Amino acid sequence: MSIQGRTIVIVGGSSGIGLHVARQAQAAGAGRLILAGRDAQRLRQAHDELAAAGGAQVDTARVDAHDEASLQAFFDALPAFDHLVSMVGDAMGGGFLSADYATIRHVIESKFFANVRIARHAAGKINPGGSLVFTSGTGGRAQDACASYVGNAGINALVEALGVELAPKARANSVCPTWTVTPFWREVPAAQVEATRQHFNQAIPLGRTATMDEVASAYVFLMANDFVNGQHLGVDGGVMLKG
Ligand SMILES: NC(=O)c1ccc[n+]([C@@H]2O[C@H](COP(=O)([O-])OP(=O)(O)OC[C@H]3O[C@@H](n4cnc5c(N)ncnc54)[C@H](OP(=O)(O)O)[C@@H]3O)[C@@H](O)[C@H]2O)c1
To answer: pTM here?
Structure first.
């Protein structure tokens, strides 16, 4: 039950929770980290930070998970790996009647179909004993974030299916964070981010939002524990427990 010496691909390892997963995986003795994302500068910064810390071999690759041709080229060039983490999934606000139809489609495409495509490519490259860990989410309601809600339910169904389809060779799970301060909100005004944080401080029984390290450690656990399969692990302070 260890990721010691393992090759770990993190699609979305250049920022936020994914970068924290990379840091924790390196500290836990991962042998090789392959960080992927769209933005070259973010990838370079993440690479340089992890390479300076020393330990794992660190490589980067550019990929747009919303583009099948880009995904195909990315997976064609990947070596066999032990674990893959996907941080892919856009979010939205608004209900089924109020939100823009194109946005609803895009977010379901981003959260669900992009990760189905990642799973299909990854299935051919994963080593026996490996795992896939996707990023779902919790804390939202269908009437406030309709496509995010559908997408998260889709990811949770995806890992239940993959938990059978990939077995016994490999496992699949998802981590479900609730609203967390990360660079995901980089384009939202700081005052609005703070107002949302205050809202979630009230909604979460523990009275605060998570740190990125608290969320990231769930991915490392799901990679390392060889008998957790097909699960969606909430790291949300119990946000859905209150009315
Ligand atoms: N933060 C929250 O409140 C929260 C709550 C629940 C769920 N989530 C989920 O957590 C994930 C975001 O993680 P984060 O909060 O740590 O945000 P983040 O700091 O923005 O990190 C997202 C990472 O994913 C990469 N990425 C995004 N879209 C991509 C694409 N199409 N192709 C390839 N790489 C892509 C980004 O790199 P590039 O942009 O350079 O491609 C970046 O490395 C999403 O799946 C989101 O739905 C977040």
So the answer is: 0.98
